[in-house]
Write a structure and sequence with these properties.
Layout lengths: L1 E8 L3 E8 L4 E8 L11 E2 L1 H18 L5 E5 L4 E5 L9 E2 L7 H6 L4 H8 L8 H11 L1 H8 L3 E5 H9 L6 E3 H4 L14 H7 L8 E3 L2 E7 L2 E8 H7 L7 E6 L3 E7 L10 E4 L2 E4 L2 E4 L2 E7 L2 H6 L48 H23 L7 E5 L8 H9 L2 E5 L4 H11 L8 E4 L4 H20 L1
Parallel strand pairs: 1-5, 5-12, 9-10, 13-19, 19-20
Antiparallel strand pairs: 1-2, 2-3, 4-7, 6-8, 11-12, 13-14, 14-18, 15-18, 16-17, 20-21
């Protein structure tokens, strides 16, 4: 018997799974996400292609587990604008990886500190707010249509739900809304001052609701929960303030839950893992601090196939890599640096360059953990995502950080978290396996030299 089913609206694949009453997750279908296109800073996809693939999987889980509640976990910050009257998209699916708003953010640098305080986020072109500011200023017809309510804005999950409900439901859960830069930190509604800053009309925006809320999509399909993908991964863990999730997929994300309304250290992010229903509507649930490493998945793929095994000695002591490929994430938040590889790394054979890249990922995770929790580091790092399967990553991370490292036995933590939320189950459910350290002497020493090199690169 299925307790719930779930969809994961990923950047490279859309996946569907069923959660049985034994607590086990079974993946029942996958589809490739529409490929991203665009030159330079532009990263877009076909919204109709995404809709078709996700709809097919929604029907599949409904057929596999009739009547079971459905949970959706969605990639954050990707959005569409469409016509209210017809449902036809008037923009592509603008990916979270799209950085077209880089010039706009640079021009607004004087507001960066105030916006970080207001939203819990760093002013970055990855978020919807800056991209909307740029697009609406450049396209007056788009701005007029949104102001009149004739055009609607939505994150990817919002667009799909609106379509599946026949235009009846225009909503977004708080964990997704908080990543637009349009919601005040600790708040639960669109912020008037923020909408004014980014020039976004409220008439085009969805209602913000709790993460667990029933929606009848028709044909016996009951949507019970929607949540941001990284938050869903966190919900798969029996996590507390001593456990951080290190999710390494298309991007790298380090999340550390905090109970209080704690603001993030400079250069890091803070936001709600869920929105919780209240008598008055919705309020933030538990918060998480977050640090990001941008675009590591595609960058690793470009280096060829692995795996890369752990090692006790460094084959390239002077070779360093800054692995972020789409602008440097937390805590630096820079556009593409002048170089991502040290001179010694440029002449290496492919297999050694791949190792140096993975070292860079490990070093970035340590840098983020230390910066995000300088006074009280977590005791355990739990690895999830496709890159967690790399045999190098876990042992190297344990050796480099000196922290306990575990790997999720369940490879689909995002689906697990979304399904448990839909089923009304508490956080947890995913087993972990400890990872033994290897390479400690050279990695701990090299980390200091890597940091010195990064400072030189980012200062150039």
């Amino acid at each position: 018997m299925a307790l719930a089913t779930a969809l994961d609206l990923g950047s490279t694949r859309v996946k569907a799974a069923s959660l049985g009453d034994d607590g086990k997750l079974v993946v029942v279908g996958t589809r490739p996400a529409p490929p991203l296109s665009g030159h330079g800073l532009i990263r877009e996809a076909d919204p109709q292609g995404y809709l078709d693939g996700a709809t097919a999987l929604l029907r599949l889980v409904a057929a596999c587990a009739p009547g079971a509640p459905v949970g959706i976990a969605s990639q954050r910050s990707s959005f569409v604008i469409w016509e209210r009257a017809t449902g036809n998209p008037v923009t592509p699916l603008v990916s979270w990886q799209d950085r077209r708003a880089e010039p706009w953010c640079a021009a607004q640098a004087g507001r960066a500190r105030g916006l970080a305080a207001a939203t819990g986020l760093v002013l970055s072109p990855h978020y919807a707010g800056p991209k909307l500011a740029l697009m609406l200023a450049a396209e007056p017809a788009l701005a007029r249509g949104m102001a009149a309510g004739e055009l609607l804005f939505g994150t990817l999950d919002t667009y799909l739900i609106w379509t599946w409900s026949g235009g009846r439901v225009h909503r977004v859960d708080l964990s997704m809304a908080a990543r637009t830069m349009l919601v005040p930190f600790g708040g639960a509604d669109w912020g008037g001052d923020l909408l004014e800053t980014f020039g976004v009309p409220r008439a085009a925006l969805p209602a913000i609701g709790p993460s667990a809320a029933p929606i009848d999509l028709g044909n016996g399909i009951r949507l019970a929960a929607t949540v941001a993908d990284q938050a869903a991964g966190m919900l798969a863990l029996p996590a507390g303030p001593d456990t951080a999730l290190v999710n390494l997929g298309t991007g790298g994300f380090v999340l550390l839950p905090v109970g209080a309304r704690k603001r993030a250290p400079t250069g890091f992010l803070a936001g709600p893992l869920t929105g919780v229903a209240t008598d008055g509507g919705v309020c933030p649930g538990a918060l998480a601090l977050e640090g990001t490493i941008n675009g590591i998945g595609p960058a690793l793929e470009a280096l060829g196939e692995g795996p890369t095994e752990p090692a006790d000695a460094d084959p390239a002591p002077d070779a360093f890599c800054l692995p972020d490929s789409t602008g440097v994430g937390a805590p630096h938040w820079r556009a593409a640096p002048p170089r991502r590889w040290s001179e010694a790394a440029t002449m290496l054979p492919d297999d050694v360059r791949r190792r140096v890249f993975l070292e860079g990922v490990v070093f970035r995770v340590r840098e983020i953990v230390e910066g995000m929790a300088p006074r009280r580091r977590p005791h355990t790092l739990v690895l999830a995502g496709g890159m967690a399967e790399e045999p190098f990553i876990g042992p190297a991370l344990a050796a480099c950080t000196g922290l306990a490292v575990a790997r999720l036995v369940e490879p689909e933590a995002t689906l697990m978290g979304a399904a448990r939320l839909a089923a009304g189950l508490p956080a947890g459910g995913a087993e972990t396996a400890p990872v033994a350290a290897r390479g400690g002497d050279y990695l701990a020493d090299k980390y200091g030299r890597w940091r010195a090199w990064v400072r030189t690169v980012l200062a150039g």
